[in-house]
Amino acid sequence: MFTLKSAAKAQLDEHFGGKDKEPIRIYLASGCGGARLGLALDEQKDNDQVFDVEGYSFLMESALFEEAKPLSVAFDASMGFTVESSMKFPEAQGGCSSCGCGGSCS
């Protein structure tokens, strides 16, 4: 199951207003805060699941989708876009020194 929440759709409508709607990839990203699911514009690949929702195409590797489903794309003005899923991510370890901020995050 894949859901695009209304606030996320409204933000996408604003972003793509008057432009071609490019496919949006959901991918596994990592950083100081640990692993999370992120969004990026991308082209479809052979092993992708494709979700056409509300006029937008979302792409995700089939194996990652099986691990993460159900999915929901949300938007919050203070947090930006987020991808909610059933995936369990390990707690981030190693502090901020690994993210390039010079270890000054604490």
Q: What's the short story on this structure?
A:
Helix content is 17%, strand content 40%. With 106 residues, the chain is an alpha/beta fold.
Keywords:
single chain; 106 residues; alpha/beta; four-stranded mixed β-sheet; three-stranded mixed β-sheet; 2 helices; 17% helix; 40% strand; globular
Care to describe what's here?
This protein is an alpha/beta fold and 106 residues long. 17% of the residues lie in helices and 40% in strands. The chain has helices at residues 6-16, 62-68; strands spanning 2-4, 24-31, 34-41, 48-53, 56-61, 71-76, 80-84. It has a 4-stranded mixed sheet. It has a 3-stranded mixed sheet with strand order 1-6-7. The termini are far apart. The model has no long low-confidence stretch (mean pLDDT 86).
Give me the strand/helix succession.
EHEEEEHEE
Number of helices: 2
Helical percentage: 10-25%
Distance between the ends: 39 Å
User: What structural class do helix, strand and pairing data support?
Assistant: alpha/beta
Shape: globular
Largest sheet: 4 strands, mixed
- Uncertain runs are none
- Mean of residue pLDDT? 86
Tell me the radius of gyration.
15 Å
- The strand count comes to 7
What does the secondary structure layout of this molecule look like, with pairings?
Elements: E1 2-4, H1 6-16, E2 24-31, E3 34-41, E4 48-53, E5 56-61, H2 62-68, E6 71-76, E7 80-84
Parallel strand pairs: 1-6, 2-5
Antiparallel strand pairs: 2-3, 4-5, 6-7
